[in-house]
Amino acid sequence: MSQYDPPGMPGPPQPDPDHLLARRSVRWTIIGVVLSTALALIGLFVQASQSGGGTSAGGTSGGSSGGNSGDSTAGSGDTGVTGGTATTVGPSESVDSADDGLTSAERSLRDSLNSSQWQRESCEHWTAPDATAALRCTVSTLGGTTKAKIATYPSKSEVQEVYLRYTARLAEGNCDTTQNARGTWHENDTSTPAGDMACYWAGAGQYTIFCTYYDRPALFEVDGNDPAALTDWWHTVDPVFTSSTG
């Protein structure tokens, strides 16, 4: 054999210590990331479980509160809106004006009407110039059912001004026997006049009976297309108010 042998096939390269350290570092980094991620997921799971339990309890409480509020509203009365604000009204509370469309003065007038004839729940706002309160309500008597109007004013003198404004051109007369007349009316067949009265044809073929009260600043009006039937019905309206005032 010769002293110089040609080199054979090269063997596998020897590992580089620095390279081995780098690989170990990467491996531990990956392991650290995996552990951190796992811990984070466990933390999120625990937090979600706790949050879910809290939400369930809180949701139940909130739902119960909301349900109770809803039940209270439904069971106690209607909800009204005043100035954009909803107001819950109970059975023992006064009804808000937004529920019936009336002002406090109109509700006071409504409550003073004779409930045996005037259907108070039917009363609605009526526009009457210069009136403190004015209503249009369904009135049922032995003579039948129709709509009548009632208004109150700041003083009796103002009622008289309104009365004269509409009746000044009418002749004196008795509305039981004459149309387009003005005079006085008597309550309960007494000889003492209870107020002024007028009856006349208004526009649109409507016959009007118009009367005032000497004991209060109020005015009554009813309209119809049959003068005789309207006059007969008017005689069955008694009394309009539950009590007299000075």
TrEMBL record:
The chain crosses the membrane at residues 26-46. It comes from the Bacteria. Residues 51-69 have a biased composition (Gly residues). Residues 51-116 are annotated as: Disordered. Keywords: Membrane, Transmembrane, Transmembrane helix. This is Serine/threonine protein kinase.
